[in-house]
Write a structure and sequence with these properties.
Blueprint: H1 5-10, H2 18-31, E1 36-44, E2 58-66, H3 73-79, H4 100-103, E3 104-112, E4 117-123, E5 133-136, E6 143-151, H5 160-182, E7 187-192, E8 195-201, E9 209-215, E10 218-228, E11 232-239, E12 242-250, E13 255-262, H6 264-269, H7 283-288, H8 299-314, H9 318-332, H10 350-372, H11 379-409, H12 415-425, E14 430-431, H13 442-445, E15 460-463, H14 467-474, E16 489-492, E17 503-510, H15 517-521, H16 523-534, E18 540-549, H17 556-564, E19 568-571, E20 576-582, E21 587-593, H18 594-616
Parallel strand pairs: 1-7, 11-13, 17-18, 18-21
Antiparallel strand pairs: 1-2, 2-6, 3-4, 3-6, 4-5, 7-8, 9-10, 10-13, 11-12, 14-15, 15-16, 16-17, 19-20, 20-21
Helix pairs in contact: 2-5, 10-11, 11-18
Length: 617
């Protein structure tokens, strides 16, 4: 059977990079038991108009050499065999060397084997043993050198420093474990045009702790490393010094812990490509392997607990950081009961905590639906589940109200804040007739409860709309109204079309914080004018007016005018308010600071949340 090797391998290697080739070459060297690997990247630098070389050159040649056993008969035969198993213990597929031909038109190989033979040949898709020159070696020490010329690179300005970083990331752990296995240090040196750029020395790679673990006579070695600025735990299961499986946990630290776990058991159970483990799921099959030790089936948990204990021993401040993170979660998700969260765990993951909570709520809601469709369910059982679900939804709503309160408490008396204050209560330029009240989000548009929770119910709200528009919305046909006056907020109770009975009206006016006290107090006369115009379109029973602006409880000017008008000063959780009844126009007027409104609303919300949490417990 004739095989088109080039075409077949094109399916495996489409976008080969310099790093891919370096990885394959270094693996070949380690397989040949090399302890000193030298990589030389040769660049051509163009000169600029000042005859000075540019910083960025084009990579035109790569030379990889090592002091391994050279191309002896075993290695040489494997080199010309597609799919060889020579490097199977390194996870190789036996075709990696063909990646060399994807970046270089010329690949020259020179070697002195440990058998004293000097070997040279040009490697290509058509190469075979007949093209190899074999002579008696003059030099006694074995080595292998691979030279890549006529490079065909997509990115010829490949940065040598990036290659060095890649090699460290790829081989640091491998070299560490390889030295543990063989007791021989391995060096990788990267040069640029013959000058040393950097090196990787297995002897310079240290773990902070080495532990042993045993399960059912099966032994595991655990090597602990850490890095800064990662905030995670990686547990790496390694077979023949290669990472086969990685398990990641998030932690509340600015540090990454890496645990490399090795075992003869892992070496036996990894597939030939070192891409996965083939653990026996059937206990009977596991018992057949009586010649080799097999761990208990819960060995994963045992390894995890051991790794977590190591982290806790090295991080005494972890619990305090978990507590601080939990407090942030309470601020962000105050409607959730976090009492059952364990702050002593290593893998404190706020994302998973919230995800788990939401999944639990979804399951409970699904269970409620199934219960409602169950004809045999008792009314008491249904009532209990409905009540529980409603508590959650109500707690979530109250928490979102607190977000509004917190924003309001940050407002200070600037011109811009009058608009923000207005928007917090109700979006401007709309009414309940101009958006879909059936939308569930409608509940969050109306924040008039900031004044009093009784204002959560209403028949109609208009925000910064003319009295003429209000008249059109509520359907009054008894009069012609052309008034262009714009109350900041107009709230009507009782549907106007239901009867001819008089209605309760709430009027809210916002005043800029940086105006003087006379202008603030002028709003009292302003709301009286509004009432006269509103009487034309609706029969008013009780008329409540709120004037919201910034003032202090010790503002003597405001207090003097209010006292003269027979208003009563009332202190609240923060600052104060003045209440007065204008007998001539039958109007209730509350002159109140925004801080007082938001402080009182915050107290009501927190009390409500505490009650809901207590009931949930």
């Amino acid at each position: 059977m004739k095989t088109n090797v080039k075409r077949m391998l094109s399916h495996f290697y489409k976008n080969v990079t310099v790093n891919d080739v370096l990885k394959e070459a270094v693996m070949n060297s380690i397989q040949a038991n090399a302890t000193d690997i030298r990589i030389n990247l040769e660049y051509e630098y163009n000169q600029n108009i000042d005859n000075e070389s540019s910083n960025l050159g084009n990579l035109y040649k790569i030379i990889v050499s090592d002091n391994g056993e050279g191309l002896n008969s075993k290695n040489l035969n494997a080199f010309f065999e597609v799919g060889t198993e020579n490097k199977i213990n390194l996870g190789g597929k036996g075709i990696g060397r063909f990646s060399f031909l994807k970046i270089a038109r010329s690949v020259s190989i020179e070697s002195v084997s440990d058998a004293g033979k000097y070997i040279t040949f040009e490697f290509s898709y058509d190469s075979n043993l007949e093209s190899v020159s074999i002579q008696e070696a003059i030099e006694p020490d074995p080595y292998t050198t691979i030279t890549f010329c006529e490079l065909n690179l997509k990115h010829p300005k490949t940065q040598a420093q990036a290659c060095l970083t890649f090699l460290k990331k790829t081989f640091n752990l491998f070299l560490f474990l390889k030295q543990k296995e063989t007791s021989k240090p391995i060096n990788i040196r990267l040069l640029v045009n013959g000058e040393l750029l950097g090196k990787i020395n297995s002897s310079d790679i240290h773990c902070i702790q080495q532990s042993e673990l045993e399960s059912n006579n099966c032994k595991f070695n655990i090597y602990t490393f850490w890095e800064d600025n990662k905030s995670e735990i990686d547990i790496l299961y390694c077979a023949n010094n290669i990472t086969v499986k990685t398990i990641t946990y998030q932690i509340n630290l600015d540090k990454k812990y890496l645990f490399a776990v090795t075992s003869d058991y892992f070496d036996r159970k990894a597939n030939s490509e070192r891409t996965k483990f083939e653990f026996d799921s059937n206990e009977e099959l596991a018992q057949q392997d009586i010649l080799n030790s097999t761990p208990d089936k819960n060995f994963d948990d045992l390894i995890k607990r051991t790794c977590f204990n190591i982290v806790q021993a090295n991080e005494p401040e972890l619990v305090q950081k978990n507590i601080a993170q939990l407090e942030k979660l309470k601020e962000q998700f105050g409607y959730i009961n976090f009492d059952e969260i364990d702050i002593n765990v290593v893998s404190f993951n706020e994302t998973e905590i919230i995800k788990s909570y939401r999944e639990r709520r979804d399951r409970e809601e699904d269970n409620l639906i199934r219960l409602l469709n169950n004809d045999t369910a008792s009314l008491d059982e249904i009532a209990e589940k409905v009540s529980e679900q409603n508590k959650h939804e109500l707690a979530k709503y109250i928490f979102h109200r607190n977000l509004i309160v917190q924003k309001g408490l940050k407002l200070q008396g600037s011109d811009e804040n009058e608009k923000i204050l207005h928007e917090l209560f109700f979006p401007q330029k709309i009414s309940t007739e101009s958006y879909d009240v059936a939308n569930p989000e409608h509940l969050y548009f109306n924040n008039i409860w900031l004044l009093d929770d009784k204002f959560m119910s209403y028949a109609y709200v208009a925000s910064d709309l003319t009295i003429k528009t209000i008249k059109s919305d509520i359907g009054s046909e008894d009069c012609e109204c052309i008034s262009q006056k714009r109350p900041d907020l107009f709230v009507l109770y009782n549907n106007p079309e239901d009867s001819d009975l008089r209605k309760d009206v709430v009027l809210i006016e916002f005043k800029k914080g940086n105006i003087d006290y006379k202008e603030k107090l002028s709003a009292i006369d302003q709301v009286d004018e509004y009432k006269e115009k509103l009487k034309e379109i609706v029969k008013i029973n009780n008329f409540y007016c709120y004037i919201i602006c910034d003032f202090k409880a010790d503002d003597r000017d405001v207090e003097r005018v209010m006292t003269n008008r027979a208003f009563t000063k009332v202190f609240s959780n923060n600052e104060c308010m003045y209440y007065g009844y204008l007998q001539g126009s039958n109007t209730h007027v509350t002159f109140i600071s925004s801080n007082s409104i938001f402080a009182d609303a915050k107290a009501r919300n927190e009390t409500f949340l505490n009650i809901l949490k207590r009931d949930s417990n």
